[in-house]
Amino acid sequence: MKEKYVRDLRPDSQVRSTFLVQSKERKTANSGAAYLDLTLQDTSGAISAKLWDYSERTTPAFEADDIVQVDGYVENYRGAPQVRVRKITLCPPEEVSLLDYLPRTRRDPEEMYAALLERVRRMAEGPIRALLLSILENPALAEKYKLAPAAMSYHHAFLGGLLEHVSSLVALADRTADHYPWLRRDLLIAGLVLHDIGKIEELCFTRGFRYSTRGQLLGHITMALEIVQAQIRKIPGFPDELKSELEHIILSHHGKLEFGSPKEPLFAEALVVHYLDDLDSKLEAMRQQYALDQDRPGDWTGRNPALKRELLKPRQKG
Amino acid sequence: MKEKYVRDLRPDSQVRSTFLVQSKERKTANSGAAYLDLTLQDTSGAISAKLWDYSERTTPAFEADDIVQVDGYVENYRGAPQVRVRKITLCPPEEVSLLDYLPRTRRDPEEMYAALLERVRRMAEGPIRALLLSILENPALAEKYKLAPAAMSYHHAFLGGLLEHVSSLVALADRTADHYPWLRRDLLIAGLVLHDIGKIEELCFTRGFRYSTRGQLLGHITMALEIVQAQIRKIPGFPDELKSELEHIILSHHGKLEFGSPKEPLFAEALVVHYLDDLDSKLEAMRQQYALDQDRPGDWTGRNPALKRELLKPRQKG
Amino acid sequence: MKEKYVRDLRPDSQVRSTFLVQSKERKTANSGAAYLDLTLQDTSGAISAKLWDYSERTTPAFEADDIVQVDGYVENYRGAPQVRVRKITLCPPEEVSLLDYLPRTRRDPEEMYAALLERVRRMAEGPIRALLLSILENPALAEKYKLAPAAMSYHHAFLGGLLEHVSSLVALADRTADHYPWLRRDLLIAGLVLHDIGKIEELCFTRGFRYSTRGQLLGHITMALEIVQAQIRKIPGFPDELKSELEHIILSHHGKLEFGSPKEPLFAEALVVHYLDDLDSKLEAMRQQYALDQDRPGDWTGRNPALKRELLKPRQKG
Amino acid sequence: MKEKYVRDLRPDSQVRSTFLVQSKERKTANSGAAYLDLTLQDTSGAISAKLWDYSERTTPAFEADDIVQVDGYVENYRGAPQVRVRKITLCPPEEVSLLDYLPRTRRDPEEMYAALLERVRRMAEGPIRALLLSILENPALAEKYKLAPAAMSYHHAFLGGLLEHVSSLVALADRTADHYPWLRRDLLIAGLVLHDIGKIEELCFTRGFRYSTRGQLLGHITMALEIVQAQIRKIPGFPDELKSELEHIILSHHGKLEFGSPKEPLFAEALVVHYLDDLDSKLEAMRQQYALDQDRPGDWTGRNPALKRELLKPRQKG
Amino acid sequence: MKEKYVRDLRPDSQVRSTFLVQSKERKTANSGAAYLDLTLQDTSGAISAKLWDYSERTTPAFEADDIVQVDGYVENYRGAPQVRVRKITLCPPEEVSLLDYLPRTRRDPEEMYAALLERVRRMAEGPIRALLLSILENPALAEKYKLAPAAMSYHHAFLGGLLEHVSSLVALADRTADHYPWLRRDLLIAGLVLHDIGKIEELCFTRGFRYSTRGQLLGHITMALEIVQAQIRKIPGFPDELKSELEHIILSHHGKLEFGSPKEPLFAEALVVHYLDDLDSKLEAMRQQYALDQDRPGDWTGRNPALKRELLKPRQKG
Amino acid sequence: MKEKYVRDLRPDSQVRSTFLVQSKERKTANSGAAYLDLTLQDTSGAISAKLWDYSERTTPAFEADDIVQVDGYVENYRGAPQVRVRKITLCPPEEVSLLDYLPRTRRDPEEMYAALLERVRRMAEGPIRALLLSILENPALAEKYKLAPAAMSYHHAFLGGLLEHVSSLVALADRTADHYPWLRRDLLIAGLVLHDIGKIEELCFTRGFRYSTRGQLLGHITMALEIVQAQIRKIPGFPDELKSELEHIILSHHGKLEFGSPKEPLFAEALVVHYLDDLDSKLEAMRQQYALDQDRPGDWTGRNPALKRELLKPRQKG
User: Fold this and answer.
1) What is the ipTM of this complex?
2) What is the DSSP letter of B102?
3) pTM, whole model, 2 decimals?
4) In 10 A of CB F267, how many CB atoms?
5) What pLDDT digit, counting tens, does each position of E170-194 carry?
6) Which residues of B are less than 8 Å from A182 in CB distance?
7) Which of F214, F218, F251 sits opposite E218 (nearest CB)?
């Protein structure tokens, strides 16, 4: 259990807590002495740190991406807090929870997951329900599904981001299917639950977020297909046509070839998955940018990297 | 009141009814005699017609786009019905209702319009509500708003299509704002009611659908701005910021420069207007294509011109 | 065994042979009598045919894509031969060989396949060789691999086209690997043998060539992955890294996102597969165009649809 | 009246003059003492300045974009002059003329404006002349028209730039209409006078050049339409067709959708406005680059941001 | 000397004149008899013609692109005149002037050429003048320069079109250089005289316009370089820098790589050549379209193939 | 003869050798004293150097791109070797060989050239062989051909790079022509030998690699044409058709207009030249990147600028 979070560190105070080492660089001071220039991070943010008079012999070994116990003092450096490290030791990984050290959803992943499962269980019996449950109730998949970010950056780029994104999409899909009752609701919901499942293997998120080598070679769309095909093989009598339709929804959800979908959406539910996914991602990116820049002077936010433009901040309340 | 509709004409029967002349061409038979090759249309469809032994002196004058009273006999020509015209006379325009002669919404425009007005009246007092009512309660604008198609082709290309499209969008926007409660609901709804209002002047729809000359020179986005600006001038104290935001929503609703929007959406409600408009248009285009091709053999519809692809017909019910 | 081929039909002679019905249309003559307008085809070409005085009651039933026994007389119609059908009856499909009725490779598929197998067997023992043999020696896959065309049109669009294309590519790869000895030759050859294997399910080729519904939804790249993954699951201890590399070669072989590859080639052998595939396809398209237009007057061929240009015919011999 | 210009400041001399504060940053010296790092600007250029031993209590308040009276000493810092500020006080805005502090046209705006007015007055009586005079003789519009830059950067990015650009265009249009006498000269000239008038509200130019919020939301094309439409409403009987044509010229003057024109030029004068505008802008950008780099060694200028290329410097005189 | 032009042929009259055979097709009448379906053309237009009861033995031999003497009768066929040919014989090519049989400039090529030469002779002595004269006074080049069309279609696609286009450009360039006096006028004029000179070999225009084989392989830009380089080699001491600049103007005059210019304009005169060429071509295409459609009902012309849009016809006179 | 290479310099040792001055900048130390900040280079790499207490009067004059004799001491600066210069003097250019100072092929240019010549001499007698020999045996051209790099960066960007690239291509072409025996082998080889010959004038490579002014204005494709045309003029009776084909191969070898080829390949050998050139360049760029990053941790290389992507490093040996 972490004792103190980066967000709460104030200059001129002692600090003793655990952190993730985001970066570690050995440098030489003007005096010629070696020191370590570190960035320490936890789920609340990141802070610069210095370990002066560094020597490989006396300082315990640790690397970037390790979790460490730090004992030090918070100073004010050029107007920002910075930790002067007195003592630093490696933490055993089994004692820590990732959610404490990486950016994470503000909501409870377990609760979101339970709600998602509950929604799927309310579906009519049939192959779609069977497939979704075989995936969501699979412990290995479930553990990753709860933690995975939805993207490396841009939107929902935090632990639990995939789940938060999908939860929003499923609720939005229910409203959309209420509005267009001729849509096949269960196919739509299945498409949304599965469309980004490849992210759980495309991305590495047990430390800083990174693409896995296989993720970089194949991409999450192809990886999602393999996961879903493996589950379908376990369900006797799963209809071939339905299988093709689900695979197509996954394949086409980026909407265009140049965005990495080798097929464009060829039926209504595939089109809706693409539009809702795109809309929810972009609105979340906007919401985050508004929050980030709410105290920034002027009418405009900074440039949003997902939308590649500055945004007009909301003025009057609608 | 029309007596008979194209859809109901059967070979080997008499016909006496009014029609819109879609096309009229003077041709010469192998015998050397002149005849008229006509296409007659009403809201239910179009049919080929021939007037043999044509002479300018004896046949009453009429042109394409006129409404005519036809007296004739329905024959079978190469497997399709065709009218052999005995007598044809011009109909006075004031006696006919356009809704009988052009493709039209299956719903009642008056009812849809009343529902839209009622929704707007439920808004909180304020400049947005005032603006929308000043437009929707303006008799000249209202009359056109009820009849305008939403497009020349592609989607909602029928009388009342604009209203049907907007009615769907406003209801969808209410669901979307329920889902994302931080959106400014009234701004969103105003954006949707106004985004395509330029269509009422961009398109001519009192006969076959055509672009007006001014519509072709300026486009419906620019024309919508002029209509909305004119109404805003009549509302004392309309906030400048709100005016800019509404204008921006209209301007940016095509989403990209290459689709004719000189600005991309720069705040959340503008983005949502673009996405919902695009989604509703494409789903309606898909729905129409499914309906058109439901009896076509095979898994696929014909090529849909709006989506530029064949569509997989819905198979199992969702 | 077919008795006579389209290529050999001459005006003013009897014909009695079997053909594939490419198209069949019921028409009405000026006299009002019904007749059938047919196109008959076999591997050597296609010919127009007429069955006059057609009646559903007396003429045996058959449809487009059926193989029929035809008894008739070859006439000259506007300078081209045309069959006047006297008698037409359905042929039982089990009695015919597809190779007689569809455009096909000029080479012997069995021989090409044997040579390909022999080349693979010469590889060093290991997972690549094991995978290729498990596929090429699988009777169900082998049967399709021997017959599949390499494309719907453009290049190698004939029975055995896939195999002819792959055989050329494997030989070209051996030469290329001789030239660049640092390339991993077996990975390259495996990539070429597998890159288009999805075509055996993307295309239907037991009658006229068509996309299968699943083929249109997923595309041959995605289908190739599923076939290869299924075979790899049967090989214990197949290395994960090698699996990812083979999958990547298949995925990236179109070279660019806009050509349907969700990933661009990320290592040398993937790049070479893309280039050789592209070069061999385009050279074959050119070679076919040269052959087609060798007697055409002037310096240029007609427009080649694969290359989207006219070609300069080869003049002096190099 | 400014006493001294940046261009004339020499190291090792006293300076006492007024400047616009381009940027102001509070920094901390190695000694721990606070100081201000400033950039001071006037119409002749910009210079770095330092105010050492800064304290909020004793230094008079001022911000970036203010005009200040500076008392100091010019030093040589790393080969460039830099002001060591002794005393700095805010100047009342009503006492200064913008033309002294911002980059500006080398020509006299009043003279250019008078010439433009005179040219318009020479037109034949009629609605075009009436419209142009109603705009050019409107004092509020005239004041802005004389000062506005033609762009944020790229070309004519200085006070009076719009007027200089339009003056050049009108003279060029007269020559072009002499060459192509079938062009409607007055329509062409009106199009050029009005095409960029939206810049007077799209840009803020009373301090450093910036986009206004409304400018960023709507763009100068849409803003020009509103200005022109407002003037046309005041002219009784202004022909509808002419109004549409002028609006179209404004709308289409960027030539292509992807450059922000929702319509491409649809008649000859609109096409000519687009070409002349583009040519004059690019030639001015080239001329400025040649002037800037005339002493640069080698055959090439630096990269020109408007043309996105290096330019060959003019060698022999033509 | 031609006796009668297509434009003057009236139904129910004899015709005896020479024409160019635009197309010739052997057809079979319903009766089984062979006849020739011809299109005859001269500079004023084209007309359909029939030679009934055709026999290879009795009718004199001629081919498409030959010039023939025709003796016949003009009939009315479906409302249009058509020649019933009685007698047709080949004309010796040396007896005819191309200008009579192909679309041609309305102006006198000799006069235009003389004016162009005169303009060049007015240049200051120097290498530019020397080069232009060496080309324009070269009889072989001059003969082609006077006749070449400026394009296959789109603009100035008639005999003398290149010369008409260049004459317009040179006059326009003089006006432009008056306006921008810092431009190197002679370089500009030389660039315009030479930019399209490759057309004289890219196109074949001694009969119907066609690309030459070499023209299709290399394009007129590359061919212009070869012509110009050959002339420069004959001028001792021609400056290297000037040579490069002229070559660059020719190379870059299409403005962008995707329009076939391997380099974009890199100095002012090259830019101006590109803009003037583009403007003059498009204005001429517009002018031709206006002329063609001046009696067409409605506000719009038909679709212009060069500009790929319909044009608004000029309404009020400017 | 160079005494010592950059690659062999070790901290804490004396150095006395010749180097090329890559860059030279006069700076001021904190103490106010002037010093020179230099980068010295030879074929093995580059190293930073400092000349302290610099004075224009006492230090011998030299500039960037000069070759200098340096006498100094190698220090360790921030973990990297750096030369403290004691004495520096200019070297006479005639005493040095470029191959010692610029990055160069690892192979012997003379040997490669001899092999290329020998291959050409083995061709059948005829105009192709005559042309190639006239070029390759021309001493002025040969000297440049042996030294020219194949590109400014990206691939073969070193002395001898063009020759190494062409040598590889010619050998690859022989293998390709063995595989596709219907290709005109000599035309293919001639195309490859000549396709990039313009590089010998487009690039300056007697010091750091740079574009020549003429190279930047015209590009190597246009320059290659001029070189080849000049040689062809010297060969009596060189066939026109063959000339056009060779010119076309050169012109089209970039494959697409947007890559600077004004024509796309229009016959088979031109297509093969484009593909082989592209493949060999990209494979060489990959090979270099693999070599550069072989000791870099992880599965991926750094971003390759030619391919614009990271590359997967080869893992198992193929």
Assistant:
1) 0.90
2) S
3) 0.92
4) 23
5) 999 999 999 999 999 999 999 999 9
6) 287
7) F251
